[in-house]
Amino acid sequence: MSVPAQRPPAADPDGTLPSTGGGDLVAAAQVCTPTPRDYRPEIGAAALEEALAGRPAEAPLALKVRLPFCRQACRFCASRRVPSRDSRQAEPYLSRLDREMVLARRRLAGLPAVTRLHWGGGAPAFLALDQMSDLFDRLDARFGLSGARERDFSIELDPREADMLTLRHLQALGFNRLTLGVAELDPRVQQAINRVQPRALTEALVDEADRLGFRELTLTVMLGLPFQTPAGLADTLEQLIAMAPARIRLTRYDHHPERHPDQRAIHRDWLPDAASRGRLVAEARQRLAAAGYVHVGLGLHARPDDRLARALADATLGHGPLGFSAGPAGDLLGLGVGATTRLGDLWVRNAEALGDYEAALDAGRLPTAAGCRLDDAGHRRRAILEGLLGGQGLPREETIGEGLPALLAEGLMERLGETLRLTEAGRWRLPRVLEGLGVLPKA
User: Fold this and answer.
1) Fewer Cβ close by (within 10 Å): the C or N end of the chain?
2) At what angle do helices 354-362 and 91-107 cross, to 10 degrees?
3) What's the pTM value of the predicted model, to 2 decimals?
4) 103, HSE (Cβ side, Cα atoms, 13 Å)
């Protein structure tokens, strides 16, 4: 099916689209992490070294490895990716990742076995199988990876890059969680975003992952894509629900071609307007609820027997830089170009340009480019977020303000004894709730 010729863009001076009624289908960074403007270059490698050295030896540490390489350019992409066709081009990067591991580990007084590990990107399946093994072995040698059954080792996969052999290899290494990117199954939408991905491709991997014993398989769907319609989205969701994944995540496409070059191939006239985007969200909510999925928050839906759904019901759900967890999220060390680290009240991020990342490591320095420390307002914001997202709620004294009566009247929060909690509607409109509580400035 052909894609229409591009037409002049609609007037939109700031390059943004109107907000939909989709509530918290926004980048989690907008509500859960410091914003880019919060980071300052004077908080850099020295601050990270001090924070690493000051951690108790028994404190757990999660690891996230960023692998930026991609063979195929999805036009909705908002990541800093490194386009490449040959996995051998990743060798210098993998060597520098090892240098970063060594520099970071040298500062740690001690470390228990790592039970939370995530590989993201980019497309981690860009790596050849032997490269995956080598990277996993290096992580194990530097930090000590847990072999416990309750470990949480996850990886993001593009089904166009992975196959049955990839899954078997990952399972043999120790990965036990998968996220498969789908975006959309409508052929017209797929062509517009340059991501042609037949259902059979995803379904075969889902079946193999189930056979191999991977748990908590997540399929991701994007709302607001070019030519996307409620009917087409409903068909996509019904096909994915039939695959019975443990989790389905809804994300929102935000069109910023001035910042993300790949998006320049998507024309604004192809995109759903604000009303249509609202209908897409409503359709997704209805379909997933009818299928029995629980909205955990931030667009993530889980089957009722999933551990995150149970943690939400038990008010023990945690949230951190790796997303939701069945318990406290804890600290995270990010490795790789553009990776983010959180240690206590310190947040730092690595250089986002590959050349800068490489230069720092070649000079024997951690590649930290900027950082920030949570102030009192930041700590309050995080405490409120964790209470709301985790199901624990907030004590009434934490929410004294002019906005609370309106949130109660709108049905976004409710009183349960001496606690104020999000309603289901409130979980969908988290930014509105945070505005009402004074945690986020009004848009």
Assistant:
1) C
2) 50
3) 0.89
4) 23
